[in-house]
Records
---
Amino acid sequence: MSYVDDVLAKVIAKNPSEPEFHQAVTEVFDSIRPLIEANEEFYKKEAILERITEPERMIKFRVPWVDDKGQVQVNMGIRVQFNSAIGPYKGGLRFHPSVNQGIIKFLGFEQVFKNSLTGLPIGGGKGGSDFDPKGKSDREVMAFCQSFMTELYKHINADRDVPAGDIGVGGREIGYLFGQYKRITNKYEGVLTGKGLTYGGSLARTEATGYGVIYILEELLKDHGMDMAGKTVCVSGAGNVAIYAIEKAHQLGAKVVTCSDSTGWVYDPEGIDVAALKEIKEVKRARLTEYKKYRPNSEYHEGRGVWQIKCDLACPCATQNEVFTEDAKMLVENGCIALAEGANMPTTLEATKYLQEHGVHFIPGKASNAGGVAVSALEMSQNSERLSWTFEDVDSRLQNIMINIYHNISDAAKRYDKEGDYVAGANLAGFEKVLDAMLAQGIC
Ligand code: NDP
């Protein structure tokens, strides 16, 4: 058995009940196989694959808090500090009932390579809780966030580990978490990103992930002699990433006709009304059923179904494993040109393969959604120099970062005789830098 297959089998056996982690490791290992096999004995002796799949540290903790009825509730909190070879741990916090160790490990593992692709000095981490902010009062969310930070603060600081938001963690949660960190440590430092603009946040951070998805898609199209103008786009999700991907696609002359949330999806043939979507999701925190009130000609459907709509470009921006092989078949039949993942690992391995084999340009999340963490790193830089840059400055840096990521992954694919395989390109380019730093730092 080859070294890659041997370690993959060991990772699966050693981490049972973590299917998402297995999926993420399988994808990366398949891509980096040519690099490892070119010098297999050396990497085996260095145990590089064993080291890269074992988090440097995992912290799991109890989060007790009191609800509005006076009842004590208990949730699980977790932070995985996966790899600090190229910088302090950086990655979001996810608050969602589905959160478990395997999901946070898959996200942390992906984050290592994504952060490397940004070209910025940030290592990989991820964290979260099975707490569900949906339906909770602001006071309950604050009580939970304060309790969560009362443990987490021991393990993070501006130079060690800098968490950000993810599903269920937006501006409100980051504010409560930051307030508690400051209160306990008596330090005003850039320990979290995604902060409000009045207390150290960066302009364009809110928009960064969604805008970045469209910037990289635009560069891919340009590289293939096309552009965004006039293209029809299907987006899934209706959260932070989806909203700003839709906004930027419209600004560049494309028309986004779908979005979705965890209960249903919208088809608006005239193009999604971003102002209405922001009001429903960012202000009212309501369901997408509300959308029809703003746009009577749109359709609302229960369940999932976005990918049956004919489109040129697809951007899954909700959650992991939301594009299956049946969806990939519909996208291909409908003539989809390219798919850029806004969410982390929204496409199953089989669906990814199907799309690639049928000529759909496929950009994996670790490249296409890296704009969020890139601007988070720019927020860290602004906090360190105690300055705030303009929206235009941050946005143009973001755009350059996304353009560079595209060419970096495209060139890496070519170097390994896999031209056009952006999954392999992203994994190889992300891995090369981390590998180099790990080898330089010795056995640690
Ligand atoms: P949000 O919580 O803002 O939005 C998530 C959206 O996806 C919501 O519309 C939500 O529906 C929907 N959703 C969540 N879980 C499910 C599910 N199990 N089934 C169907 N729909 C679901 O999160 P973000 O927009 O921040 O994150 C979306 C994805 O992008 C995640 O994979 C995240 O890891 C990734 N990402 C986010 C970054 C960021 O900067 N925010 C950076 C890089 C990646 P509902 O409204 O009903 O809750």
---
Amino acid sequence: MTQAETSFDWIVLGAGPGGYVCALRGAQLGKRVALVEKRPTLGGTCLNVGCIPSKALLHSTEVLTAARDHGSHHGIGGTIEVQLDQLMQHKDEVVAKLVGGVRQLVDGRGITVFTGEGALAGDGEVLVRGEEGEVRLRADAVILATGSRSVELPFLPFDGETILSSDEAIALEAIPEKMVVIGAGAIGLEMGSVWQRLGAEVDVVEFLPRIAAGFDPEISKVAERIFKKQGLRFHKSTKVTGASHGKEGRVVLTAEGPKGEDLSFEADKVLVSVGRAPVSDGLGLEEVGVELDEKKRVKTDGHFRTSVAGVYAIGDLIAGPMLAHKAEEEGVALAEQLAGQAGHVNYFAIPNVIYTDPEIAAVGYGAEAAKEAGHEIRTGRFPIAANGRALATDATEGLVLVHADASTDRLLGVEIVSRNASEMIASAVAHIEYGGSAEDLARTVHAHPTLSEAVKEAALAVDGRALHSL
Ligand code: NAI
């Protein structure tokens, strides 16, 4: 390869939502960008084995539950059968289409893709080891966007067969009879729901006293009640302590219950979803002096600069919520900053969503966090059951909470449990983004009939004037 073919303005390591979006924005801004990715396809965890395939599976199983569990009510019936291979094929087609689309975008913008494992080699150099050997690249800026991987429990290493990470839980070839999910966060609740809908008995073991602990307790409680009705079994304040082989290839997990009692769970499949850790090893970081924090994340300043000049980091690899949209925003902000513009991420306005049915979504502060930040708050509540569209679409379970500062009425946070909460949250994000008030949200026209009207009503309720609840 000639020097011109290996010299770039920027090299981006990792083609997930952080990396490929950063590369796209850089190319838009006229930069010559190299994108290094070890997977054969672009899109990272999110598109290949995370957000997108899980959403395809969630949708397929929602189609199933709508027909199987609610069909007769609509005069729709008959025998419903699940063909798991077809369901998985649909998911694979969705992924293939999307990663192909990203490749088209990247190629169309003139970004050069190198397939292989990249590592810092000092002085703006990156060594890429691929199937066709090694190539040494050079650039003024190197952007680390290598993402994260699932965390193992020390006594329960992933084996890909029985002890699974989310990577395998999206690709099982048969429906397990008994599944234990360890961790009731985003992955545990989403994938636990998928397999429970398909017929598995699912026990969810959670270390903390509540599920979906990233949300307010009121939200956790409403969500837990709904998921329990759907058939998920929760074991909260319960700590898995060990594992042994059971009969017929099963695993037996031992655990300590809320009162210190001994519990055990037998399962054909165990999904360990206790969080993710940054991929900061094997990148030559220590060798060139890039500093890590206590969680092995790359330390950055407010401009994504690491401790080494010319090396930047974004996404799951650095502090903050491990969310694709956070990584994307950081990718854009960094690209703009490097190009001399004023790129910026408003971390307060990053929504957080769990894509169960109903979905759970939140932005800004929850009630507890708002109080901790020194606000006196007023909270408006609106039950989804009182929404007309919800009634017409079998989606009556859930609640909207709107928190506003008691003295200024500034919108501090919105939390939703509802079908389509992931879309409903967008209007709240917009109001928070420009520093709007609960009154602004309450006076914004929301189309009728939509579930989003429940957000408007909860905003009206902040001032005690919801129209469709007493
Ligand atoms: P998480 O951090 O969301 O939840 C992990 C849960 O496991 C917590 O409730 C924690 O208390 C519990 N836990 C930890 N150790 C435990 C133990 N030994 N026994 C029992 N419970 C234990 O992590 P998750 O679900 O694995 O997701 C990883 C990351 O990926 C998160 O940052 C999440 O936000 C992100 N993600 C986001 C999605 C979304 O936006 N919908 C979907 C999937 C993942």
---
Amino acid sequence: MSDLKELYQEVILDHQKHPRNFGSLSDATHRQEGYNPLCGDRIIVYVKLLNNRIEGIAFQGSGCAISTASASMMTEAVKGKTIEEAEALFHAFHELVTGKPSETSACGKRPPLGKLAVFSGVREFPVRVKCATLAWHTLRAALMGWQGTVSTE
Ligand code: ZN
């Protein structure tokens, strides 16, 4: 398990132990469930949108360290951002963890990922990529007003 040891860097463990923005959001305008059957990660993302901007965001769920840490760091990264800015971050993050250009890589510059860059190691573990992207897929579906449960499969 030494490969995973390298993957679980200090910042990821910190977010797993002390997830930020964990809980529900009473005044949420959007709510979305996500599920990663490969690992069993479950998440609910709450978003409060105001004038096209993410005014508030929170999440609940249970999953592995990677999925929890990713959700926690995602909420910090997108809070206060517009939908377009969050979408750009989604693509940048997706490219980081998969090592492949995103579907819309042709359009637009990628924003800096900051702390999210710690997830670059996930690229070496295809199974973990779904853990790391679950929260992002779920957020995206929430913003698009999609109904139902997002599955990474
Ligand atoms: Zn997982």
---
Amino acid sequence: MAIRIGNGYDIHQLVSGRPLILGGVAIPHTLGLLGHSDADVLTHAIMDALLGALSLGDIGHYFPPDDPQWAGADSTQLLAHVAGLIHSRGWQIGNLDTVVVAERPKLKPHIPAMQARLAEVLGLAPDQVGIKATTNEKLGPVGREEGIAAYAVALLERPAAP
Ligand code: MG
């Protein structure tokens, strides 16, 4: 069994007049994330972790922010595309572990739905998709609710050739 590991990070600005989408789930809030796509910061961090594990570059390479094709894109569709790149190279996802850093809203009640949605997109069991939420203790831009950040680690596995 060969294994590879990758990490990803992303941050998006919080603004009024946008939906808040995290892990493919719409979360009720007074603010949403600004971006060319749906600005799903958690899904973006996961994509970069998956790509990074195989040194395939980053999401900006596959989905350029200035490409009108991706305007308003559902990031879970982009994630499915990235998963296809991984699978086509003979790799499968062992597990993901992630952290979402947000001062508000409280994300804990939404974590099971986010795990279920991401697992569905990736063909995984929900317990292969770790999601943790923390605040930034009111420190820095995330603490001032100017944005939400996410970190992700992905473990990939490839069975040994028979
Ligand atoms: Mg992003």
